[in-house]
Write a structure and sequence with these properties.
- The structure is a single chain.
- By secondary structure, this protein is α+β, with helices and mostly antiparallel strands.
- The chain folds into two domains: 127 residues, no CATH class; 86 residues, no CATH class.
- It is 33% helix and 14% strand.
- A hairpin with a 2-residue loop joins β3 and β4.
- The radius of gyration is 20 Å and the shape is globular.
- The two termini are 19 Å apart.
Length: 224
């Protein structure tokens, strides 16, 4: 959690220069709400470090445009406008304003939008978009790799269940036994993924959630 604490401090420092004084309490409350949510914190940090309009502004709420495979398309609703961000455990990208309502054709396909107009229609009424909930609250999302219920975990996710023994994949010895090795190197990862797929990887479901929230995914394939 130290990394999240450091990130929150960085956001708070950026807010001092970005948020109008009369809106500081509202902006701080939103940051507090998402204090343990890496996806939302990445969005807040990106916004306050690189204000889209190069003017003082603050995020009033975050809404969900779409999500797939641990990748989130989020709308940051501010006092001035609304902005689109693509966020995942791999990073964050700014994708323009809700008013423009543009998304790259590959991303439209990835998120299942039939055509650009379908996406623009969503952007025109941000008040109808569902609020983005902290990952620790949303039971349908893996708190570590952000896979949605029914989707496969990111390989190395600490929540993934081993299809051979039913334990946690990163803690049991099955991966070593199946590969016939004592240590797993980079060249073994692809082979392990093939073996997992052949056996039948276990998709995320809410009953897999740990009692505590993990900070995020990490490919931890070597013996601890």
């Amino acid at each position: 959690m130290a990394a999240l604490k450091k990130q929150r401090r960085n956001i708070e420092r950026a807010m001092e220069y970005a948020v109008p004084a009369e809106h500081m309490d509202e902006a701080a409350d939103l940051c507090l709400r998402f204090r343990n949510d890496r996806i939302a914190l990445d969005l807040l940090q990106e916004f306050y470090n690189y204000l889209p309009e190069a003017q003082e502004d603050h995020i009033r709420e975050i809404r969900l445009l779409a999500r797939s495979g641990g990748v989130f398309l989020l709308a940051a609703i501010t006092g001035r406008s609304g902005y689109i961000y693509l966020v995942s455990s791999e990073g964050i990208e700014f994708h323009g304003t809700l008013e423009e309502g543009y998304l790259d054709p590959d991303l439209l396909k990835f998120f299942g939008f039939a055509d650009p107009e379908m996406f623009r229609a969503l952007c025109r009424k941000p008040e109808n978009l569902p609020p983005y909930e902290p990952l620790q609250v949303d039971q349908e999302i893996c708190p570590a790799c952000h896979a949605v219920s029914g989707e496969l975990h990111e390989l190395g996710c600490p929540v993934e269940v081993c299809p051979w023994c039913g334990g946690q994949l990163i803690h049991c010895s099955c991966r070593f036994e199946q590969l016939g090795v004592e240590e797993i190197g980079e060249n073994d990862v692809e082979r392990l993924e093939t073996l997992l797929n052949e056996k039948g990887r276990i998709a995320y479901s809410p009953d897999q959630r740990p009692d505590f929230a993990d900070e995020g995914p990490g490919v931890m394939l070597d013996e601890e």
